[in-house]
Amino acid sequence: MSGDVNGGEVSPGEAQLAISGVSKHFGGVRAVEAVTLSVRSGELISVIGPNGAGKTSLLNMISGFYRPDTGNIVFAGKDITGARPSHVAALGIARTFQNIALFAGMTVLDNIMLGRHVHMKAGVLSSFIYWGLAQKEEIAHRARAEELIELLELEDLRKQPTSGLAYGLRKRVELARALALDPKLLLLDEPMGGMNQEEKEDMARFVLDVNQQWGTTVILIEHDMAVVMDISDRVAVLDRGRKIAEGSPGEVQRHPDVIRAYLGTAKERREAAAA
Amino acid sequence: MFHRESGVFKTSYAADMALYPLPIAKWAVAAFAGLFIVIVPLTLGEYYVSILNLILIAIVGALGLNVLVGYTGQISIGHGAFMSVGAYTAANLVVRLDAPFWVTIPAGGLMAALIGAVVGIPSLRIKGIYLAIATLAAQLIIEWTINHVPAISGGVQASIQVPRPSFFGVQLKSQTQLYLFLMGFAVLAIVGTSNLVRSRIGRAFIAVRDQDIAAEIIGISTFRYKLIAFAISSFYAGVTGVLYTYYLGIANYEQFQLTVSIDYLAMIIIGGLGSILGSIFGAAFVTLLPIVTRWFLESFGGLIFSAADLANIIPNLRLILFGGLIIFFLVVEPEGLNRLWRNIRNYFRVWPFSY
Predict the structure, then answer these.
(1) Residue A97 located in a structural domain
(2) Do both A87 and A214 map to the same domain?
(3) Residue A48 within a domain
(4) How close is the nearest chain A Cα to the Cα of B16, in Å?
(5) Chain B interface, best mutation among A108, A128, A147, by max B CB count within 10 A
């Protein structure tokens, strides 16, 4: 159940996650079309693109919510195409959601402790008895949870139910819960969406801390271009399900297809204005 | 008045995670234990102790159902049948092999857990009202099977006589002896369930209930945990069935029909879903309600109704009160008696300076 999260260690530089030719169609909608992307260990890569470009669908395929129609996904040498989300998580891929998916009735601490689930072993019987094995384990993992609480500056909120927290704080708790898995790869779906400037800066700092201190690979979906260009090692651009560009932030910004996807060409703009 | 945390400082994670983090709460629990384990059996008469016995048995069943419904968010209307599985497993073991209680109780629980887990399989695909219907089908199928297979039911009238259990060679003849025996299991269930829901497995249950997608994403297999919840819950139901059989001295499928499943659902709704204390309150409340109603009407009903009418009124009034109370709790206090208790406790937390 716990999964061997330390298995399949990949040295920096090699592809940790290899997505090759994946597509996902919903009826006539081609959400993702033959996307190939390889992510090196320790890299911070951003996936950008206009609304409906297929960014979230791509993450959903990596984390196992969608089974790709074509192509395959290999993580740390293991084929995870179409694996169950819980299995993917146990292999060391954690994620956050665009529209926060916390356990609303539970405290911040319990949410983070849930993130430790895959690393804990207590079964039904030892949980029932508690004193002894389960308690020892709870205490050990509580210590790790407290480290994350400290890192994300949530100390004063640990016993608060997450339903009462402000939006930005809930995003932070969700990040803490994802980090509690000690992931090799972290998928962040718009972690800064709906935040004010200060909250965005805090969040960007947390993401960079995680990436640089622990060497966690990060795939980031974000609409705030200033943040993306600032913190990414590499940027991939999707438009209408296809990958149209990939490269360093500077290269991507100058890429003509990217400019067209975001701003349209002069001709298209004239036509849109006429219509 | 005894839930005041001011001035209590915790210096270890173990202290912070204790069942009763406040010293005063520990004393209160000790006082309750003394009251119910020493004073009650010494002072109350056989009749009153026999009522308490019914409550103790109901506590075990209500806790089990609450693990499934309250904590994991899956519904079951088949718990009466799971109890009968435990009851008949134990009865057959006693009659055929003369098995002692420490064999029959786990065996009855495990058999019920097995069948409960099978009944829980549809929960992978269906939720809510559809799952309720699936478990209702299980209730009816199990009832029918027990009634029609003589190898299980013991033949005539589908009932099997079971002698009272023996404890270290002493047969538990009086209600008071049985009370202490049942108290042991009730306490085990209460403490065990409290432990279960505050550790890894219990958190996973709540995760499955609150957000199944988020549960999957942090590595909790929702299917696996739904089945575990069904199995644990049915295990409790099976044990309840065995205890009930020992209490009545007979295993009879009529004691475990659909109304029993509904009664237990009522217990946890009235007591409080997803709450240990609520299960205890609910078990006591639903067990006492018909007894108190009957006592009240027999004492004072004669002032309004004739004696002939009274005999008809009593069973019907129980149903009316029961239905009315469930509606009342669903509308006014969906979190049940446990919530009322918490409100009282929170009021006294800062009493007398509430601002």
Answers:
(1) no
(2) yes
(3) yes
(4) 10
(5) A128
Give the residue from B43, B46, B245 showing the smallest Cα distance to B164. B245
The predicted model gives B192-208 an average pLDDT of 95
- CA of A97: which chain B residue's CA is closest? B214
Token duo for residue A237: 């651009």
| Pairwise CA distance, residues B138 & B298, whole Å | 38
B230 in Cβ contact with B119 (< 8 Å): yes
Residue A6 pLDDT: 42
Find residue A237's DSSP bridge partners. Answer: A48, A245
Q: Work out the percent of chain A whose per-residue pLDDT is above 70.
A: 93
CB B162 within 8 A of CB B95: yes
Q: Do A106 and B206 touch (CB under 8 A)?
A: yes
Nearest CA in chain A to B229: A124
Q: Which residues pair with B251 in a beta bridge?
A: B160
ipTM > 0.85? yes
Which one, of A96, A100, A65, lies nearest residue A81 by Cα?
A65
Query: Tell me: the pLDDT tens digits for B10-57?
Result: 888 888 888 877 777 788 888 988 898 888 888 888 899 999 999 999
B210 contacts A138? CB cut-off 8 A: no
Same domain, A150 and A173: yes
Backbone angles phi and psi of A152, in degrees to 5: -95, 10
Q: Do A128 and B196 touch (CB under 8 A)?
A: yes
Helix (H, G, I), strand (E, B) or coil at B323: helix
Our count of domains for chain A comes to: 2
CA angle A49, A22, A223 (to 5 degrees): 15
Residue span of the structural domain in which A136 resides:
104-181
Say whether residue A133 is in contact with chain B using an 8 A CB cutoff. Answer: no
pLDDT average, residue stretch B140-149: 91
Within-domain flag for B87? yes
